[in-house]
Amino acid sequence: MKGDDRVKISVIGCGYLGAVHAASMAELGHDVIGFDVDEAKIRSLSAGEAPFFEPGLPEILKSATASGRLRFTSDVTELKGAKVHFLAVGTPQKAGEYAADLTYVDLAVESLIPQLSEGDLLVGKSTVPVGTAARLAARIDASGSGALLAWNPEFLREGFAVKDTISPDRLVYGIPEGERGLVAKALLDEIYATALSNDTPLVVTDYATAELVKVSANAFLATKISFINAMAEIAEVTGADVTQLADAIGFDARIGRRFLNAGVGFGGGCLPKDIRAFSARAEELGRGESVAFLKEVDAINLRRRQRAVDLVVESLGGQVYQKKIAVLGLAFKPDSDDIRDSPALDVAVQLHGLGAEVVATDPEAIANSARKHPQLSFTETVEDALHGAEAVVVVTEWKEFRELDPVAAKALVANAIVIDGRNCLDAEAWRAAGWTYRGMGRP
Ligand SMILES: NC(=O)C1=CN([C@@H]2O[C@H](COP(=O)(O)OP(=O)(O)OC[C@H]3O[C@@H](n4cnc5c(N)ncnc54)[C@H](O)[C@@H]3O)[C@@H](O)[C@H]2O)C=CC1
Ligand SMILES: O=C(O)[C@H]1O[C@H](OP(=O)(O)OP(=O)(O)OC[C@H]2O[C@@H](n3ccc(=O)[nH]c3=O)[C@H](O)[C@@H]2O)[C@H](O)[C@@H](O)[C@@H]1O
């Protein structure tokens, strides 16, 4: 690609998704401008610094901002002149409701419309309720800007976000019918040329299918996790071991072992809110019953956090008041500093609510946790967390926790009781070192 031939890209919303998308598109050789209303985020990104923890992001941010292929702004008028505009703003759960809050999407589109020119393409990446793209397409048509809309859902996983963006396992384009659709597809093909040249599967479809692919993928993943957690509940009353069960059913290629890790369940900024928004949208469409099982998926998931708390209380003879408990993990998953709807943080907060002296640690998520729950105590080192603890609960399976030496850990604690909320420790080794080990769905 020669510099002047490159399609100019804008990315609207530079959070966990947008910042990675902007930097990755620049890494692939495109000219990119990222826009966000959060000025602190823009300052950090402009300095080539990632405003959150994501492996690989700092490196590509630095190289792309230094090369001039990537810049950031909080002035929306600077998006004028870009040809393809990716929409990556948040779609959180509405306060007190299940439905998605589309305020940010609508505000972003309104602020973008005056910057659009004939033939520009707006590409939706945010996860939205089915029907949103058609509504936004009508709004853009009515604006008279002559711009087009495509929906191109994103499937990246935090912790692997850069790799998943540069080498996605599939691409989905939701495009309008006819000539306009072909124009949209050609622009997307140009942007994703590298992935397409590597035989990345491509599904070209209508808006509604593209929107539904995204929410159904997340609903399926959430269901898979709650399925194994439901088996964990049955294992707990029968003496069976859910980890062996998962291995055994996972050998069936039709089932597969991935996403069958029982524990404190799923969290994060997506799976929980996406299944709730899907339920709410299905109800609006008069098809609530079709996805009624997602309410059960959610309920099973939330019970598992409670189960971990109950195990701690039970292991300490029924009460945790004024007892020091080491909570290992705060992020919703390892290799992330994201604490949105984190089961780990929830367990820490619940134990604190029962009067325990919670001391929590996490390699990356302390700052975010302390902002949200200043009532908790945090420490940077596992050793400080363990020192004098009457019970230890592992709730995020960071490598440094998985690889803890049970013999050395035992020398620090007051009571050798460990609750493995992620079934990530070697139970045999911990028991052999003299610990009382309790897993999730394990004898
Ligand atoms: N985080 C993830 O791994 C993935 C997220 N998604 C979806 O992507 C969307 C964004 O998610 P995250 O990046 O996690 O959220 P986030 O909260 O980290 O980022 C959203 C960003 O949008 C900005 N914003 C809000 N209103 C704006 C406006 N009017 N103009 C410009 N910027 C604005 C916010 O300041 C924030 O920086 C959601 O719909 C989510 O479901 C999809 C796949 C993966
Ligand atoms: O829409 C999104 O934002 C993204 O949501 C998830 O990605 P992510 O939230 O980054 O993390 P996952 O790896 O899916 O894990 C989600 C949660 O499930 C939990 N989990 C995962 C797997 C498992 O076997 N058991 C389990 O409890 C994790 O600990 C974590 O809390 C999807 O995997 C992505 O494909 C999707 O793009």
TrEMBL record:
**One Gene Ontology term of the molecular function aspect:** NAD binding
The residues that hold substrate are F155, L156, R157, E158, K214, F259, L260, N261, A262, G263, G267, K333
EC id? 1.1.1.22
All residue ranges annotated as the UDP-glucose/GDP-mannose dehydrogenase C-terminal domain in the record: 326-427
Keyword annotations of the record:
NAD, Oxidoreductase
Q: What class of enzyme is it?
A: oxidoreductase
Instruction: Show the catalytic activity.
Output: UDP-alpha-D-glucose + 2 NAD(+) + H2O = UDP-alpha-D-glucuronate + 2 NADH + 3 H(+)
- On whether Metal-binding is a keyword of this UniProt record, the answer is no
Q: Which SUPFAM superfamilies does the entry link to?
A: 6-phosphogluconate dehydrogenase C-terminal domain-like (SSF48179), NAD(P)-binding Rossmann-fold domains (SSF51735), UDP-glucose/GDP-mannose dehydrogenase C-terminal domain (SSF52413)
Q: Which domain of life is it from?
A: Bacteria
Catalytic residues at: C270 (nucleophile)
Functional pathway: Nucleotide-sugar biosynthesis; UDP-alpha-D-glucuronate biosynthesis; UDP-alpha-D-glucuronate from UDP-alpha-D-glucose: step 1/1
Q: Does the keyword GTP-binding apply?
A: no
Which biological process terms from the Gene Ontology are attached to this UniProt entry? Answer: polysaccharide biosynthetic process; UDP-glucuronate biosynthetic process
Q: What residues bind NAD(+), as annotated?
A: D36, K41, T91, T127, E158, K273, R340
Matching entries from NCBIfam families are given as:
NDP-sugDHase
Record family assignment: Belongs to the UDP-glucose/GDP-mannose dehydrogenase family.
What is the protein's name according to its record?
UDP-glucose 6-dehydrogenase
Organism of derivation: Compostimonas suwonensis
